[in-house]
Specification:
elongated; 284 residues; alpha/beta; 7 strands; five-stranded parallel β-sheet
Length: 284
């Protein structure tokens, strides 16, 4: 079972470490283990309990009232609250709990409910993106397994594909946007969202998918006569490799390039003509 430090609980729940300590002392809400040097550590069950508590607390419940509930009552009230009075914090928090518990049914139920109420575009921007950033925290502290990340990612991927498939086809006869991730990049969720947003706007989008070799990309650009290129990069490639890739594409094509993803956001872009961040094209 994974172990979490109090700062990790703070990052995942949004409850300050100082507040968590007070709740432990006054209400016995959590029972951390302590090392010889008095450092607190928390198991998965305690994290899930705190996540549900945070949903109720942020909705205005008094902590004394929450402390009087059983674990089951806390969990049921938290999910009921997210259904009746949906907030970003509540939904994201319950997503994290479902991830930790491998509860795909709960995750899909909450996600479907949010999509039905607000539409996929809003759900992606206001719920899924913050949730995916929280997953990044879990990766950093080494408390999430590849299977957990994969089962959640595949649910989101499936929902995106369904949402894309429901959109009408473009009336344009020309490929307006060519979408891909470069060789060695397998993260697809961001790219699928770009595809959804562009197709929803009425553009003719060709989706090449992930791990596209550079030579194949350059050949496809020429053969399709695409008007724009969209590249998503999440994993941490070397900055120089990324710059070299973009320079090679520019040397072989003059069409505008739009780039996005966590890796792109973490490095400066090379000074190339018609190279832009994806948020200049669509709202992310």
């Amino acid at each position: 079972m994974s172990s979490y430090k109090i700062k990790e609980l703070e990052a995942l729940s949004g409850i300050k470490a100082h507040t968590i300590r007070i709740w432990e002392k006054r209400y016995d809400l959590l029972q951390p283990e302590r090392s010889d040097s008095k450092i607190r550590s928390y198991n998965e069950e305690q994290l899930k309990r705190l996540l549900n508590i945070s949903v109720l607390y942020n909705a205005g419940w008094k902590i004394s009232k929450i402390a009087a509930l059983t674990d089951t009552e806390i969990r049921q009230n938290a999910e009921h609250l997210s259904s009746d009075n949906q907030t970003k914090n509540a939904v994201v928090t319950l997503f994290i709990e479902a991830l930790i518990a491998y509860d795909h049914v709960k995750f899909e139920r909450i996600l479907d409910r949010a999509i039905e109420k607000e539409g996929f575009e809003s759900v992606y921007r206001y719920y899924l993106l913050p949730f995916l950033k929280k997953i990044g925290i879990l990766w950093i502290v080494n408390t999430i397994t590849p299977s957990q990340e994969h089962f959640i990612s595949n649910i989101i991927r499936q929902k995106l594909i369904v949402a894309i498939d429901r959109l009408p086809h473009s009336t344009s006869e020309h490929v307006q946007y060519l979408l891909l991730t470069p060789s060695g990049e397998y993260h697809e969720i961001g790219l699928l969202y770009y595809c959804f947003a562009l197709k929803k706007a009425g553009y003719n989008v060709m989706y090449l998918g992930v791990d596209v070799p550079k030579d194949s990309l350059i050949k496809t650009i020429t053969e399709t006569k695409t008007e724009n290129i969209v590249i998503s990069m999440v994993s941490g490639k070397d900055k120089n490799q990324t710059h070299d890739l973009l320079k090679d594409i520019r040397e072989n094509s003059s069409v505008p390039i739009y780039v996005g993803g966590a890796h792109i956001e973490s490095i400066p872009l090379p000074k190339l003509s018609d190279l832009n961040y994806i948020n200049k094209l669509i709202t992310v």
